[in-house]
Specification:
By secondary structure, this protein is mainly beta. It contains three helices and twelve strands; from the N terminus they run βββββαββββββαβα. The strands form two sheets. It has a six-stranded antiparallel β-barrel with strand order 1-2-5-4-3-6. It has a six-stranded antiparallel beta barrel with strand order 7-8-11-10-9-12. A hairpin with a 4-residue loop joins strand 7 and strand 8 (118-123). The chain starts with 7 loop residues before the first strand and ends with a helix. The mean pLDDT is 92.
């Protein structure tokens, strides 16, 4: 489990294309400290498994299912990525509960800068709109954010200078894809209510 608090802005140093998957080599001095084979690291919000680790780099395999459901397939050598290690039991939950299981992808639609923050409008797949509410939480490229406004096919988040400086959202422009993970609590509540309604 993650919290959506990005630890560092890493970089893709190599991409190996396989028959139905690919292998990334990534640089991230913070997240590789103490890393071991089999550990989990979130890359732009996608939970990946460390295959190999050497120095400040690690490799991770990405299967076709993940490539199809996320924006990881668009990454190339030199791409910057958000990196986060799983939260430790007993640690502070700085963001919200993030699984690292991407629900879909959106697209940056607009950026509206202000003196001390920036509003970013993101497209929202129809199947996810019901889980996104004003003042609720959403994960964008692995970043825990609060929804400022939500429509039937979009949502808006407000980014502080720290988020702009230390994550990929400071770099992405209109037209760029982003990974989205909605609040898991909303999905569980929907499931329970649907099951309850079905027994009446």
């Amino acid at each position: 489990m993650f919290t959506g608090i990005v630890e560092e802005l890493g970089e893709i140093t190599a991409v190996e294309t396989l028959d139905d998957a690919c292998r990334f080599r990534l640089r991230g001095p913070v997240v590789t400290e103490g890393a071991r084979h089999g550990d989990s690291i979130a890359v732009n919000g996608v939970c990946l498994t460390v295959v190999d680790h050497e120095g400040d780099e690690f490799t991770a395999d990405v299967m076709a299912e993940t490539l199809n459901r996320s924006s990881l397939g668009a990454l190339t050598t030199g791409s910057r990525v958000n990196l986060e290690r799983p939260t430790a039991v007993g640690a502070r939950l700085g963001g919200h509960i993030v699984q690292g299981h991407v629900d879909g992808t959106g697209e940056i639609l607009e950026r509206t800068p202000s003196e001390h923050w920036e509003l970013v409008k993101v497209s929202l797949p129809a199947g996810l709109a019901r889980y996104v509410v004003e003042k609720g939480s959403i994960t964008v490229d692995g970043i825990s954010l609060t929804v400022v406004d939500a429509g039937p096919d979009f949502f808006i988040v407000s980014l502080i200078p720290t988020t702009l400086a230390l994550t990929t959202l400071g770099l992405k422009q209109p037209g760029d894809p982003v990974n989205l993970e909605v609040d898991i609590v909303a999905k569980y509540v929907e499931r329970l209510l649907t099951a309850q309604g079905g027994t009446r």
